[in-house]
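can u pls check wat happens w/ pyridoxal-5'-phosphate
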Amino acid sequence: MGSLELFERAKQVLPGGVNSPVRAFRAVGGNPPFLTRGEGCRVWDADGREYIDFVGSWGPLILGHSHPAVLEEVERAMRDGLSFGAPTEREVKMAELLVEVVPGVDMVRMVNSGTEAVMSAVRLARGATGREKLVKFDGCYHGHSDAMLVGAGSGALTQGVPDSAGVTRGAAQDTLLAKFNDLNSVAALFEANPGQIAAVVVEPVAANMGVVPPAEGFLPGLRQLCDRHGALLIFDEVITGFRLGLGGAQAYFHVKADLVTFGKIVGGGMPVGAYAGRRELMRQVAPLGPVYQAGTLSGNPVAMAAGLAQIRLLQERPEVYGEIETKAERLAQGLRQCAGKYGVPLQVNRCAGLVCPYFTAAPVRSFDDAKRSDLDRFRTYFHAMLARGIYLAPSQFEAVFVNASHADEDIEAACAAADAAFAALAGAESGSEGAKCGSFGS
Ligand SMILES: *Cc1c(COP(=O)(O)O)cnc(C)c1O
């Protein structure tokens, strides 16, 4: 059964035909391919088409699909039993590994998703400080817990408003909205809410508004503001963790957070999240302390096996990060060249292996800048790339994930497809020979 038929069936029994909204292709139109298999940086769909995957399950698969060493560990764990709901050695090994590689972390609690990690870290921050308010940044995503599904209202620098039906005003009222890369907006919130802010939660590289790296001084400035006002700094490293490097954003930008949250890569493709911090904070978590948090499947041995195997492989080959960065830069340059060739206004942001082309002439340093991207152009570009076998996230406001499994030829193939895509955008003929090298399976 092909993708289209599967999607029709799916829509009868799953809202929008999906289990997570972005997969439904609403932002780009058209129908999503149903994927059947992945190997390295390649995925295949139900129609037998082959793609070069620049999503990697939204980040987790930094070594590509079906890495043999990861699969081997998973199979071994599976045969020992799928779940016990009791302590097992693999979760100790995972925590020990995180303590070893993540700066400032003495203790870890494993959970089942990034959403859960952030929700729990926020509860811990509130419990530890005895304060109730939070600062988050408009356009940053921290999962779908009520306190995090809050956006800026029409006014700037306001109390947040629910970003989803079903989120109560009560849940939203303690979440304050600041602007990413704007320290003044954070300082103003601290001044307006003295002694009330438990934590500032931030994606150290904003990677859910496309890719917006922190401006010089932004993260250190957050550190200073939090210290001055007795608030905790939470780095939501669900994307940046083990992607910027093994030590995540703290090591990459040389800024210490009080609590860090993980998801995506930490699970190696399995549903895993984690939050972590120094001992005196983590000792507040049950059963040691008064902050309750639990999980039937938390620390699941099969999930731990996948995450452990992947992080260990990264640890054994630290040079992988430089290689990813080089390939990502080549892709970014390729996109810029294509845009220049056809006169399409484009900004390409990149941080480590995270890349995002924005269809605008002005630099993108904030969520407001990102929203100025021409979404019609993004749609055209997206479908032109997909038609040439390049599988990208179906939204302007997501990152392109370059992984260890991409070979130089895969980057070249993406650039060649981009040449044709930008030609289509400009209404011109693609002048590049390589533009025809989209990879289609039989
Ligand atoms: C994906 C993401 C989350 C949520 O993780 P889930 O596993 O989807 O619940 C939280 N924070 C950031 C920065 C993310 O990118």
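The longest helix spans residues 320-342.
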